[in-house]
Amino acid sequence: MVAKNILNRLCLKLGKENVISEKEDLLVLGYDATPGLHHAPDVVVYPTSTEEVQAAMQIAREEKLPITPRGSGSGLAGGSIPAHGGMVLCLNRMDKILEIDAENLTVTAETGVITLNLANAVAEKGLYYPPDPASQKISTIGGNVMEDAGGLRCLKYGVTGDYVMALKCVLPDGSIITTGGKSVKDVAGYSFKDLLISSEGTLAIITEVTMRLIPPPQAKQTMLAYFDKIETAGKAVSEIIAAKIIPSTMEIMDKTTINCVEDYVKIGLPRETAALLLIEVDGHPAVVAEESDGVQRVLKEVNATEIHIAANDEEALELATARRMALSAMARVSPSTLMEDATVPRSHMAQTFAEIQRLAKKYDLTVGTFGHAGDGNLHPTVLCDERDADQMKRAHAFFDDLYTKVLEWGGTVSGEHGIGMAKKDYLARQIGSGGVEVMKRIKKAFDPEGILNPGKIFADD
Description:
Blueprint: H1 4-14, E1 19-20, H2 23-27, E2 43-45, H3 50-62, E3 67-70, E4 87-90, E5 97-101, E6 106-110, H4 115-123, H5 141-147, H6 154-157, E7 164-170, E8 176-180, H7 192-196, E9 205-212, E10 219-227, H8 230-242, E11 249-254, H9 255-265, E12 275-283, H10 285-301, E13 306-309, H11 313-324, H12 326-331, E14 336-339, H13 349-362, E15 366-372, E16 377-384, H14 389-408, H15 424-446
Parallel strand pairs: 2-4, 3-4
Antiparallel strand pairs: 1-2, 5-6, 6-9, 7-8, 7-9, 10-12, 10-13, 11-12, 11-15, 14-16, 15-16
């Protein structure tokens, strides 16, 4: 609960309609998509301009209120949860696409623009924005930048950070900076833009983003491959890459995930298969034909049990949509879903699947695994009930053991979800005390008072 004089100041600067302080209304803004984590804010503000962000931050700083930035709240590591209460800066009313520059192949948008809305807007101009996180229908561009979100197409096209050209930000001291620009090459001074990408709202509040665009692919071919062993699917991934074919999409689902998805969308996925790969190649029509043939040849060589080619764009979209619904499908069959973000070198994919199966049996858990097989980014998801303390203890032990192996194999504790509150201990294990200390020094240089998104990333905060 914040003092009345603070609410009056916020209402004066942002408008009464953009300030929320009623307890019941605040509760829902203390969650994101991470089970088991909740901290209610004391006040929520909805700025509609960079200047209003600046004004809100100034009041928060003067009143010693912690500040937590938030978009749509679709994060999976607790990054937008106000761990220390205080003020939530909800940016999803800053939702204007400011410019689509076809000459320079860029788009400039406010931070609260929904990812899919941006992609559709540039597509109408004959341009292409490739990053496509599974949450693209609700996640915001600002949130994508703060987590450096990936997606189904990141094997070929890269992640969000590969497309960021410029950022407008408000720093914790209230100053406004722009870093980067539309120039394709720019090495003038420190690259603050790259430092802010994936900083999870701990260094600055992003208010505008300029993104690089590319021409759309002229053609594409989508196919499904089924396997009687999940290890064979892992081998297929490695062999396709070894054949010097880089699909735009190469996604995997195990048997548990397949059955949950089929229960949800009912498109005829084979329930008895151990794993499937969703593969898409795109580009010039001649290249697509050649790469499609190459992929099918590899799939046959590794003994895929069946290969299904999408007959048209509608069927291809149906298959991709089914994959995007994997988490939603599993959430329908379990009160809670604890999903992680283990990423390993592709050569360790088969070992990772074997370890997931071994640990699921060890801890007596139901685990569905899906993810971006082409870049080694897997999402093992424990179907659980957060009200069951013993089950949740076993679930966290499962992930603790899994990450031990992931790090041993040269992997990372997050490929795209970020650290937030959920994986602070894992990050310290990955980068060591020296790495954490350097990050803390950078944090202190930007935010000496520690008011911006406290309780995130660092284990001892």
